[in-house]
Amino acid sequence: MELSEKNQQRFKSRLLKLRSGLLRAEETGEQAEEVVELDQTRVGRLSRMDAMQAQAMSVETGRRRRQHLVEIEKALERIEAGNYGECLECGEVIHPGRLEANPTATLCIACAQALE
Ligand SMILES: [Zn+2]
């Protein structure tokens, strides 16, 4: 059972949509990080700590977002290479339902569970 061409195209357009959404968030997220930095020069000590906390969260969110972007890029590359939907461990086809839930999945359910 392989992913049909139609399914691959469907996942590709989903991945492209995910990517453009993340890129948009990346732009607004970067802006938020800058705003926090500016605020630090004119707020008191307590709210500066709040601001630093908010910035740390914003940095963490940005880090996860960039990680997710990398995963999406890799998934798009696999679609181009024609091996999208194959498990990187055992080479079996990843169940379409699993890709539906997470289009960047690189392992079949059995291999993912074995790693946990
Ligand atoms: Zn596997």
Distinctive features:
about 120 residues; binds zinc ion
Q: What's the topology here?
A:
Blueprint: H1 5-39, H2 45-81, H3 96-101, H4 109-115
The protein binds zinc ion.
Residues 87, 89-90, 92, 107-108, 110-111 line the site of zinc ion.
Give a written overview of the molecule.
It contains four helices and no strands. The relative contact order is 0.14. Helix 1 runs antiparallel to helix 2 (45-81). The chain is mainly α. The chain has helices at 5-39, 45-81, 96-101, 109-115. The structure holds zinc ion. Zinc ion is lined by residues 87, 89-90, 92, 107-108, 110-111.
Q: Give the averaged pLDDT, no decimals.
A: 87
CA gyration radius, whole angstroms: 19 Å
Q: What percent of residues are in strands?
A: under 5%
Question: Helix count, per DSSP?
Answer: 4
Helix content: over 70%
Task: Identify the overall geometry.
Answer: elongated
First CA to last CA: what distance? 26 Å
The tally of beta strands, per DSSP, is 0
Q: What small molecules accompany the polymer chains? A: zinc ion
The low-pLDDT segments are none
**Run of helices and strands:** HHHH
- Tell me about the largest β-sheet: none
Q: Work out the oligomeric state of the chains in this entry.
A: single chain
Structural class: mainly alpha
